Amino acid sequence: MITVAVVDDDRMLLDGLGSWFGGVSSLRLTASVATVDELLAVMPEPVDVVLLDLVLKDGSRPVDNIGRLRAAGCRVLVISSVPDRSRILSAVSAGAGGYLTKDNDLKTLVAAVEEIAASGTAHSPEMAFACAHDADPARPRLSPKELQVLVDYASGLTLKATARRAGISANTAKDYLDRVKAKYQQARRPAYTKTDLAARVREDGLGGF
């Protein structure tokens, strides 16, 4: 059972998510609140995944909210009305495990929550586009599959386990890793070993590390 909390000041959305999750046996919604302060005040222990609205009416900064939730031991899935590229990159760099727009369906949302709860990254089209068009020369532009393989492998999975999770062969997974390494080396950032890759993932705030 994956425990989930929602931080959003849209009451209609909160009520709607409550109804949605009521029909999903693998998830349990434990709290629906308007601010991170409220959640931290009522949360006796960390929930597995927090659905966090990007912009809240209390004026709190998204990066600060993500940082506080990560420090409290929660993984974060950002939900937003708009696929703003700079905000997506800031959220990922701050430690969010994914970014979804609010027009996604229940199946997509549940899959993203399950992936993040399993220490993965929710690879939405919005997040993939932002990463592919990142203008920071120090952060290589990775395809969605390259990003998935990098994060899973750097998290400690074997190459075979990484390949199985991505639905590809071990040889294909190795090809993706080789491309990732080459891109980081072109950016003059060491990426020769698994330890190097894990360090690059942490530095770039990928996958909630």
From TrEMBL:
Signal sequence bounds: none
List of residues that carry 4-aspartylphosphate: 53
Ribosomal protein found in the keyword field: no
Domain Response regulatory, first and last residues per copy: 3-117
InterPro entries linked: CheY-like_superfamily, Sig_transdc_resp-reg_C-effctor, Sig_transdc_resp-reg_receiver, WalR-like, WH-like_DNA-bd_sf
Keyword list, A-Z: DNA-binding, Phosphoprotein
Pfam families: Response_reg
Record PANTHER family: TWO-COMPONENT RESPONSE REGULATOR
Protein name in the entry: Response regulator
Native source organism of the sequence: Streptomyces beihaiensis
